[in-house]
Amino acid sequence: MTSSSQWEPDVDVSSPDRSVRILATVDGQIEVAVRDLHRHTDDTLARQVRAAARVALAALQRIDLGARNRPGSGEPAGAAPPGRGCP
User: Which end of the chain is more exposed for a tag (fewer CB within 10 A), N or C?
Assistant: First the structure.
């Protein structure tokens, strides 16, 4: 992270080849770092970014759902997030 950043990420994940790192918070702050860029084509870099983004999103959703299921959160335990209910 940059020295001017003063936030703590909720999620810190890397792509399978460790060339992409994503740090993110549940409130929407995100930082993406790429290393060894010379090893990638557009397609291979896109695959690594997508892989890391999938893991980061899943982790953030678990954190967010866990917060919703806490007593006093205003959401009933086990409530589905918006748009995820039964048809």
Answer: C
Is residue 46 in some structural domain? Answer: yes
Phi, psi of 45 (to 5 degrees): -65, -40
Q: Tell me if 59 is assigned to some domain.
A: yes
Helix, coil or strand: residue 30: strand
CA atoms within 13 A of residue 70's CA, in its CB half-sphere: 7
pLDDT, one tens digit for every residue, the chain (87 residues): 454 558 899 999 999 999 999 999 999 999 999 999 999 999 999 999 999 999 999 999 999 887 777 666 554 444 444 444 444
Q: What is the mean pLDDT of the chain?
A: 82
Tell me the residue range of the domain where 61 lies.
Answer: 11-68
Q: Is residue 49 part of a domain?
A: yes
